[in-house]
Fold these 4 entries.
Entry 1:
Amino acid sequence: MAGDGDARAAKPVLVEEARRFVGFVAAELRPRRPLVTPFNVISIPVMLMGAVLIVIRFTRGLGAVTNLSQESPWGFWIGFDVVTGVAFAGGAYLVTFAVYVMKADRYHPIVRATVLNGFLAYVFYAGALLLDLGRPWKIINPIIGNSFGYNSILFLVAWHFLLYMIAEFLEFSPAVAEWLGWWRAQRILSRLTLVTVIFGVTLSTLHQSGLGALFLLAKSKIHPLWYSEFLPVLFLVSSVFAGLSMVIVEGTVSHRVFQDRLDRAHRTAFDDIVVGLARGATVALFLYFFFKVLVFVHGKHWAYLGDGWGWWYLIEVVAFVLAPCLMFARGVRRRDLTLIRVAATVTLAGIVLNRLNVSVIAFNWRSANPYVPSWMELVITAAVIFAEIWVFRWVVTRMPVFRSAPLPVIGRASRAA
């Protein structure tokens, strides 16, 4: 009888907690910033148009919106959304490794923003794979064991992507728990951070190089200036300076846009953090440039420099690898933050150029009908990027990403009850 009474007494409490939770979430879904802004005016029409084109793609097939063919089955969506986007997300595994494994605590203020950016990049860019698959419903096959393909590099990459997205979500989950006021869950999830980071770093290094290994199978299709048996190493090293440069650029923009969300630690430490990231990018760029020269000389590719492809290759290596490396070095030495940010921007442009060269531009370079993406492919990619930024902005304006978490409203209410 006492047990029945306790159960009846607990029901009103559970109902009240459920109502409070629903009310909290409903309040959080309301816009907190003006709807009419330059970014919104540009992004909303692009996302709406992208949504329409995505519907057309899934109802009428790839041919309705893309210029893909049997000769060029991989195009801009793979080259930019996946191959390039994953490199941009490399900052997450680098920063978490530095903070939680190497105990570089000065980078701790940017951990959550970096992990959130990396997680969203994987969700949106890896999710964009659905757009490129002729039979998107079969994307689950490597996971459930149907046509497993144990010897396939794509099998390896698919599992790494899935597990790494889970790892990054767990790394960010303490912030979600703080936002919801689930303090016991927050303490449990925080204790898992080190294990999750080690697991995530291992997965990330493997699939960053695994993406390069994919193109080892296409030796006859990729121009010799961009093909090398060291592509996995080059992809891994380039993900280091790509990730660090993205953290610099994203952090700079976020510190201007979300000034009201920054705590004192972020404001005072960010300049030192940028210089430290730039120092790491300098080393990675120099190492990458050394590898590129070594591969070029070892492959005896001098004869390929006499035509347009050779000039295009030199532009990539000199203007987008060596030049930003020197700019980073000078910026670090003089503590010139403007020069560092310019170098980071040039580096990101170089990563886009290199990954598109390997996967699209210099792929099937002998073809009489080279692949050129349609305007609809570009619009859909832009819509995916804008959607990711919208989600990032929504999370940052609500969750403790750039500052220490105060006791959330729902948490205060729960404790008061």
Entry 2:
Amino acid sequence: MKKRGTVTVAGVAVAVASLMVTSVPAEAAAGANMRVGIMLPLTGDLGTYGPSLANAAQLGVKMVNDSIKKNKLKGSCTVSGTEDDQTKPSVGVEAATKLVKSNKSNAIVGSMASSITLAVANSVTIPNNVILLPPTASSPAITTLKDKDTVFRVYPSDNLQGKALALLAAKAFGKTAKINLGHRNDAFGNGLADVFTEVFKANGGTINKEVKWEPEAASYDSEAQALAGGSPDGWVIIDFDGTFAKIAPALSRTGTWKSNKSLMTEGFNSEGAIKNVGAQYMEGVRGTSGAQDGASPKEFQDMFTKAYPKAKWNGFEGSAFDSAVLACLASVNQGSVRARDLAEGLRNVSGAEGGTQYTWQQLDAAVKAAASGKKITYFGAWSAAKFDGAGDPAAGVFDVYSVASGKPVINAADRIKF
């Protein structure tokens, strides 16, 4: 994506109005009725995570809309619909098409998976000039996508996670270790595997074997045999829990694979995901996971749990919440729902251009400042995004977790920051 250098019409209008009639308050600026669609995996490989993230996105939209009303501003931000992408690209394209064509969404929060995000962007949102905000999609291919400045993400790219995973592998097994690398054959798996391989080899390590598998395969016995063999010093496995629930038993049957010598990624930093795979297969697994680095994380979890007491908290809710909030704030800032204005607004409110900082707990003040056309820094539940020219966050933070008795345990001292 390319950063636009044009002057915002809404911003000029506000500036001219203030010169002509200094007594006109900022709240008198024309508002816009922003419609945010939500497209997340309510079922499928990432179904452990999607429902809770959908709730978080809905909450973000509601809170901004409440602040718009409280400030007596014109315009609104509402949810246009929620769709299940089933963790499948083809279903995601159908879901996004419905949100855009039938529900008239101006922005979509989704998807979690990179393969779905890329399919939806190329087939639906880019051609229709709709903003796409994937809360956890991390493939490096999203950074270089020719998207007409319409894709923005708060979650760090695997260009950073690959480095974090390589650092962890060197620490766990030694810089010159011999690693067997196994991963799903899709945008997420291939992209992260490529970055990990490049960094790990550059630091002195060796990839003993690389084994790919198709996410929709009926069985994985041959892939498991290949991945388990060769007497490596350790394993790096890149997958989602839905698929790995089929692979793990096959790996265990080989008798040579060891979970306590395996490193994985964020998809397993969840008690629900570990349970889905089987705790007996996950004991001792370690891994890296994009980390919540926002304002008042405990207070956010408490607020979310109070709003959705039946939801299963997984730790990634802040990314969906912030994506929704930023979409709404961008519309408020620009008084528009046009994609090019929203792109400008997203940088204006994310801190990319500086400005007074407001946390997710200060949305009333953030909305008021954004409506006046000011540039602000929204410090969200997940992070302060500060979108760069490619729509990526300016920094990335990763936790290191280990699985013990069916639960992921995080040691704050091992946190990796870029």
Entry 3:
Amino acid sequence: MNRIIITQFNDIVFFLVYEDDVLVECHPIMSQDGNDVQIGNIYLGRVQKKVKNINSAFISLDGENVGYLPLDDKPALVLNRKLPKGLSSIAESDLILVQVEQEPQKMKQARVTGNINLSGKYCAVDLDSGKTGVSKKITDNETRERLRALLEIFISETIENNLSEDSLSDSLGVNNNSSHKYGYVLRTACENADDSDIRKELESLKIQMDELINKASFERRTGLLFGNKPEYITLIESYGLDRISEIKTDITDVYEDIMGYFNDPTSNIINISQYDDKDYPYYKLLGLETEISKLLNKKVWLKSGGFLVIEPTEAMVVIDVNTGKSIGKKNRDAHILKINIEAAIEVARQLRLRNLSGIIMVDFINMDSEEDKGKVVACLRREFAKDKVTTHFVEITKLDVFEITRKKQRRPIHEWGL
């Protein structure tokens, strides 16, 4: 059973994920540091400076915040001029539409993209790709064909409406935004949804995108144009509605938001409830203070008596696996494999829990057998499949260190100053 718990501790709201009663994710989602740059926010930004040696441009998002945009990520919308054909990138002082895809981390600014995307429970719409599709997680062929047909009809009707709007705009001398070819993707939640609900959301997201472009077209000052939905809603959708059995919170506003978004027959969530025992705080019932203390400790004990030492550095995360108190009396190789398998499961869990990302180097206990090394790699891959953040096993180096990469999205928990 997978449970989502949202509670508050020390003025920070925590989004917790429990799988079979084991804590596997811990996201602080509100703090008092005044940082409002959140994943999904859409800004009208101005190009401050292009730095060719890092192949990026720095974008002023508003009066306080700056983001960086890779130069090969060409924005779909430049407001102050029309980009000539063949121009590979933007220029300094350009006014562009960007969306935050990675939060600020330490001394690094937020990473932004020119690929603007709006998403809902059932659909996602992007600004300029023109591509359409159905989630690969929907495997039933009949369902996929039904959803493709629904999408084709919607796009066909949209094109007809745009042609009519273009004719009217031309006669009135008004600019129209139909030149942008929106991309549409139907998400996994569509599998058990009514066609009418999917259609309604497609229409709503298209209208939102139209309004966003219109607003940007008439605005000349940098700033936030579209604030994404509450982060706990985004995290629930990212985790996957079909995987959740229960959501519980002790925060009234959060409870009301969740009920508004997810309390419908097409949702697979079994139970949404509010904890209301005023005499005993929810975070104490969960033992959250103890869990956070463990997350900030570099040593993690294993049931076998072995332990991990987790050391985040500027360049990478280094994890060392030790036998500790674990003693094997008989088959040494089998004993080491057992500890390493247990460690592999815990490494994958700790990466999610601590939100560690980038390059991760894991020094398992030395194994002589290539077959045993293969079993550890297979175990890592199985565990990484449970992680919604893209995580890959890369290779075993010549020094027998296991190299892993994990996509950077949110700040690791040790940077929150808890």
Entry 4:
Amino acid sequence: MGTFTIYSIGDSAFLEQILMAVSMITGTGDFERMVSIGLLMGVLLIAIQSLMQGAQKIDFQQVLLSWILYATMFGPTTTVLIEDAYNGSVRPVANVPIGVGAAGGIISNIGYGLTRLFETGYGLIAPGITENYFAESLKVLNDTRRNISDSSVFASINEANGGGYVDFRKSWDNYIRECTLTKVDIGEANMEQVLNDPFDQAMYFDSGIYGTKIYNTPGNANGSDLTCTDAFDALETMSMSISNDPMVSEAISRRLGMELDIGETPMSKIETSMYALNIAGAQAYEYAKLAILEPVYLDAVAGKYQDMRDFSSAIMINQAIQQRNAQWAAEQTMFMSVVRPMLTFIEGFVYSITPLMAFLIVLGSFGMKLAVRYMQMLLWTQLWMPVLSITNLFLYMAASGEMSSYAMTGIQSMYALD
């Protein structure tokens, strides 16, 4: 009997398994025996109610109405199309009771349709949740900031530059210790400039006198001794692989857990996320590079203090790094990481108890009142999508306001990154 589309606001794969289980359960003889027991209990309840009221009448019409409702809702079956509300993937499930498919399809279309109408009005202000994940742009930028500086990403950059003895992280660490911080030591810059200037400008030390060791040659285990000027050019060449090498892109998308569309790259997704927050001067490469190398800078500063035997300063910097990492780990359990699993569980739970509704319906008026409550709960879950859409709009507007100072320049300094 036709098809119904249910828009899943949680996990469409999980809901598919739930509806497949419902389909199998309602197609067995055990399910019919359960309903038969419920119908018998309904008759007994009606008879007891009649006796309690003086045996003046027996409301057998309740039994008849209950049986008609059951036969209508759980007799015929239909095919349900579960459409993921975020990426549009469709999962068909056959032989679902028509009452479950029709109720879920009609109510979810109301919630989804209402959400689309909302987002038609403010779609130019914030990305809609009918086409993207909830607060996706914020999540992409936060994940990039926190997780991209990973050993797997550094390893892919080394391989992209020839592998062998190439060491991108160690090369930058050496440069910051022996060139950037030397620039500060001799008074050509101060720490405020290093933190507030654009990253490349802050790190660069134009000197033909001072130098460092760079590991940018696959076959050279001892590295290359270069002046600070030449070393920076070599590091910039190595860094370009962050944006244009497929191996590095694969490592970044895997580390950040990105779901990329066909033709989309991690850099293009980061760029789209920055534009969604009105960072018009956005450069995804600069942001990713800054997020990768900022921890290297902090490690290099701590290492510089250790080399100078200033252990108290080194310990203070290491403690600050550990405190920041602990704060990030704690924030991972906040609303952003909880909302979708919560939606998935409650959505699956609502549909999984539908076989019990058949048992309740045939109990008479008492069971039908509970069934009405169940329909209210189903409607409640589908109204989450419009509510989340409004919440999504609020988050984007608030974040865009906070980011307004970077609207033209983008996030280019370590101060802006934090």
